[in-house]
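Teaching assistant's notes for section 4

Start the section by putting this record on the projector. Ask students to predict, before seeing the second block, whether Mce/MlaD domain-containing protein will look compact or extended. Collect guesses on the board.
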Amino acid sequence: MKRENFNYLIVGVFVFSIMMFTIVVMYKLAVPDQETEDYYAVYKSIMGIKVGSTVTHGGYQIGSVTKVERVNQDGATRFKLQLRIKKGWKIPIGSSAEVVAPNLLSIQLINIIDQDLAVISKKTSKLLEYHKAGDTIDGKDEASMMIMLNGIAKEVTSVSESSIKPLLTNLNEHINKIGIKLSEQIPQIAENTNRLLISLNQSADQVNKILGVENRGYITSILRNADQMSAKMLEMTTKLDQVRAKLANVMVNVDKIVSSNRHDVSRIVKSTRKTLDAISSRITTIVGNIEQTSRNMSEFTYKIRKNPGLIIRNKKVKERGVLTN
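Reveal the predicted structure now:
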């Protein structure tokens, strides 16, 4: 009996020791050995971030998120995180606390990124300044691939709902209307097609009659005559070209004759002009004499018709003066 109790005591002590060792290890892991300081950062979205999320500086773990608080800032909801960081860890002013994911499969964490303040300090000849405990570090939301894909998916969904879906609906309505009109017009189209085929068959029959055995000789004769006519037209065109060339030569010769006899032609023209002037000056007297002569002949023929005997019995007639102007 005593032996069994002793064994139970040993087992109990061993289990208790293991439990205490486990508690100490968990405490060591949960509570850092060093003292810490609290800093703050404000974000619009903290997707994937929770109490206990890791805080790194340039990739090195320096603390964790210990508190998440919802606040209102500029009329919008923001999330204020309490960052518990190792005491004495220097964070330059101008640094930013970004929500990042080291890779696609890892969880989100907060990484503090410094600006290149060393170069700025050399240029401005000023010492670097660091955040003090309790300061608020500039927080930047996550710019991960998944968030970008989610944003793109939302934009595509919005475009699909606002543009593509109404477009497809209108297109479907138009197609239905066209289908209804076609279904109404198909019988008429079929009837018109049948009429067209009948008319084409009749026209083909008439063409066959025209091109029948009886008319083939006439058609051949017409084509032969047309061929002969075209040949004659071509020959006539050639002759006309020759005539045109001869006329051009004649005109050249006439021009040469006129050029060589210009003085004689001018003299003939002047003589003709003088003759015409003389005739035109006496044309009135000549016309008057011709008119008087025609009157005398008219009176003579009238008296002869009235009394043919006057030709035998000559009667002395008084002389009349010549008509003058």
